[in-house]
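[job 4417] fold queue: 2 targets
>>> target A
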Amino acid sequence: LFTPPHLLDFRERIRVDGQMIPESEVTDFVERYLSRRGETEMHPTFFELTTIMALECFARQKVDVAVIEVGLGGRLDSTNIITPSLSVITNISFDHVALLGDTLPAIASEKAGIIKRGVPVVIGETADDSVRRVFADRAAEMSSPIVFASETCQFTGVEHRDDCLVYSGTPYGTVSCDLTGDCQPHNFATVMCSLDILRRLGWNITPEAVRGGLGAVCAITGLAGRWMVLSNSPLTVCDTGHNQGGWQYLAPRIASHRGRRHVVIGFVNDKDIDHILSMMPVDDT
């Protein structure tokens, strides 16, 4: 599993069977790079080096399956050197506009760069018709089967509980998932479509594996900061939402909790902070 960025420990980015890459492998890689960097005029970025480290780790461990998340965009991302079994694009929102473009279709065009010839692609949320056309056109150009998850929802209901969301009517029975953010049903639909395609491709994915994996996503992957409740008295929540796409779900969730609310936020300097601040609920006390 390769999932930038990390929250506390760089090694969160690279995992095999749920375990972070050992510190010794990180330091060994850095030492080997530093010893040879004078041999070439190339100057790889931090993320490019991290991608190389991850792929080297996966090759050394002889992994059967690797889940590779792009760092920024897609078309020019260093992870785009791979040819996957399946491409997945979750959603499109205004982020990194200085590099990806200042319209949703422009950003979608960069994201669509991960679609490879003949490789199936699953698209998560596509509320904008112009964005949908970008993906459909790119998939047609690459002769890639395309599925829009929002149109092929493979569950009939979802129940919100304190520590999980419970989905009913799935191809795998009733499935609990420990990711509880309001955006998660959209992500769950994307997962269901992805699993359907992989099984059609011949992957042996059992219902037991699906229920077990989704029921312990955070424990298995180390994923954190998705409406992560640290305390119930007082209610203390951490979330990594950092763009308009994330805050369209966060803002109503925060607003649903009445009374005085204290928010501590931090953003890197390429975020549209003014727009995000305007989405925050006003104190009603």
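>>> target B
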Amino acid sequence: MNLIFDIGCNEGEWVQTMLRRYPSCKFVCVEPQEQLVNTLNYKFKGAVNEGQIKIYNKAVSNEEGTINLYPASDNTISTTSEEFRHNSCFAASEKIMQNGKMFKNLYSYGEPIQVETITLNKLIDENGVPDLLKLDVEGHEYEAFLGLTHKVPLITFEWHDRLSHKAVKAVEYLSTIGFTKFDTEIWHL
């Protein structure tokens, strides 16, 4: 691996794992939450200064501009997707947890903030074609893929069971630009 894109980087745990596996690899990290970008810049200061890691404080979408980001009580589920905010397991699950609360009552979303967007094509134009593209953007994966118009070697993306129709749309779209094999993660509750 020479170049990896981590879209929805959050606090960079996945990047840390991949850095250990591929110590000479370059990384492009995209994260729309400013406080997490500050964390990433601090955590990876040396690699950023050496040019091994490039960090964008943006959300990936189908076009450049701005979009609403809904900060969450748990930063790992902040989202630009209205559908995710209202229908994911974090908002709609009736599962009762050990503490007696319903799963959906453990999480909340704040008022939206505007964040800048960038497309996957623009990231490729600026950084080159990644060997691996990891996408974890809490329900906005399909829209993010619409900003990609040519195949890259490997993609992995997260999807949620309550939004499986969007995962199907993403796979259908990706197949139109040449993808035939997929590696996905599911958050099922």
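[job 4417] complete. Note on B: The chain has a mean pLDDT of 90.
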